[in-house]
Amino acid sequence: MIRGWHVAAERHAFECALQAVIEESGLSEDDDALFDAWDTLHPSTADDGEDEAGLSSGSREAGSMSAREAIGKMPYDFSPARLRCMELAEELSARDSAAT
Length: 100
What we know:
Residues 40-69 are annotated as: Disordered. By secondary structure, the protein is mainly alpha-helical. The protein has helices at 2-25, 27-41, 67-72, 80-99.
């Protein structure tokens, strides 16, 4: 169990450092601009076949893959150890958020 906390603490520290670099570099604003440009070029209409949650009903562009297919091609697994590490890292993040 101690090893799990150690790995989670390392992951949490990495994610905090990564987020700080993203904020300092302005990358999040660049991402927002890209999303806005996409939304401008691809306006959503009532005829898009989206349900109330905004999720597509299954229509995709030719050559694209579903989320299930994409997840299946990811190079990592969701083993119990990995999931527990992610849970512990989230707990550490929540503690940091509550402290600030």
